What does this fold into?
Amino acid sequence: MTMVQVCGFVLCLFIGLLALTILYLIWTRKIDLSELLSEANGDASMSRFQLLIFTFVIAIALFEIVESSMKFPDIPQGVLVLLGISASTYAVGKGISYSQPQVMMQGSVGKAPDGSDVDDAVAAAQAAAGQAAAHAASAQQAAAKAQQASGNQT
It folds into this structure.
């Protein structure tokens, strides 16, 4: 048995023991996974689940390829595209959830994590969104005036 094989077996044993330890801690509820796949209102998130599964499948497949061939392979472009689509879906879902806080907070119990009322937080978010819209409208008017002025000068 060569030194490379011995190191490979030791590394596999270490990763296996680490995985078993993590699974045990999850089973005994010392590691809480309730926030891993849920949105702010407690509903399940398909985009988070998809990203998690795709990442694990690709990581395990890559590990098996490296383990069997003892060299890092060329990753097919299709795999990277699928992983990118999955990550983009998660990012877009996250953006949508933060752009509509009133929708995300409807299923919550009534208290935000900091202890304040959710209704107050939603009202504050709506007020901030209204102010942002007003600022955007005034900036758009100023840009139109500047464009009109530059058109008159030429």
